[in-house]
Amino acid sequence: MAGGAARRRHIYAYLSILPAIVIIVLFTVYPILYNVDLALHKNVLTAPGSHPFTGLKNFADVLKNPGLVRSFRTTAEFTAVIVVGNVILGILIALLLNEKFFGARVLQVLILIPWAIPVVMAGIIWRWMFAGNIGVINGFLYSLGLIDKYYSFFGNPATAKLTLIVARLWKDVPLTAILLLATLQVIPHELYDAAKIDGGGAWAAFRYVTFPFLKPTLTVLLILETLTGFVTFDLVFVMTGGGPADATTLLAWYTYTEIFTHLNLGRGAALAFIIALLTLVMAMFYFWALRSEELY
């Protein structure tokens, strides 16, 4: 009897987690395996009836394509700027919001509005703001006398990259600031008092008290922002279209054009694996660089 009851409990436990297992298999495992199949075969939409096995040829073709090197360099620059910008701006805003002043609570709520706006809508907003004919930024600069005529931000490679960076930071910094603020609010004030007693200034208190507590949150945020930078597609789609002259062609946009312009699903799948590998390496680096020691 005891053995039968234990067996029934085991069966019930497996049946309880079966729906979750089915969902994971359908929406995670199966897409990955299907992507592997695409990457190892020739899958060109102009030849739908021919899918010969090609092994690693798609990966080799992708890696020797000069366009991949350009898009990777552009993506690395874009990702580095938004990661550093998010961390610096997020910490500064979090430190500001952590102070007691009139309207701090209201500001903590209002600052989340950009993050709550969908990315596509954020891209459209900034596309119109940077527009070369009726854009409010051009109008503001012209009214201040900083420019003598409206400037085409999207017509210059450097300023086109800048528009993407501004839109991405505007969208992501609020969440970074709020998460860091939540971490700041759980730091015991006694530690800051002890730092003052020991003669430490503001920088010493930040370095030896604040920053160690921020490390776990920063690790998550750095991984999240790195993933965001490497897979940013929607902002490029609605703002620059990869131009001018491929100056804003990020890896995600390059993968999109490989699939939907050249109609090559095999190379697109290979590119997806390369992007996933890069983000995995970066995540491992963050875990190593910001590994948390035991706190106090």
List the helices and strands and how they pair.
Layout: H1 2-39, H2 57-63, H3 66-97, H4 104-110, H5 113-116, H6 119-129, H7 136-143, H8 157-184, H9 189-197, H10 202-231, H11 234-239, H12 251-260, H13 265-289
Helix pairs in contact: 1-13, 2-13, 3-8, 3-10, 6-8, 8-10, 10-13, 12-13
Brief description of this entry?
The chain is mainly α and 296 residues long. The chain has 13 helices and no strands.
Determine Rg (CA atoms, Å).
25 Å
Number of separate helices:
13
Basic shape: globular
Give the termini distance in whole angstroms: 52 Å
Largest pleated sheet: none
Mean pLDDT: 85
- The structure class reads mainly alpha
Which H/E pattern describes the elements? HHHHHHHHHHHHH
Which stretches are low in confidence, meaning pLDDT under 50 for 5 or more residues running? none
Oligomer: single chain
Strand content: under 5%
Range of helix content: over 70%
Per DSSP E runs of 2 or more residues, the count of β-strands stands at 0
Walk me through what this model shows:
The chain is mainly α and 296 residues long. The chain has helices spanning 2-39, 57-63, 66-97, 104-110, 113-116, 119-129, 136-143, 157-184, 189-197, 202-231, 234-239, 251-260, 265-289. 25% of the residues are buried. The mean pLDDT is 85.
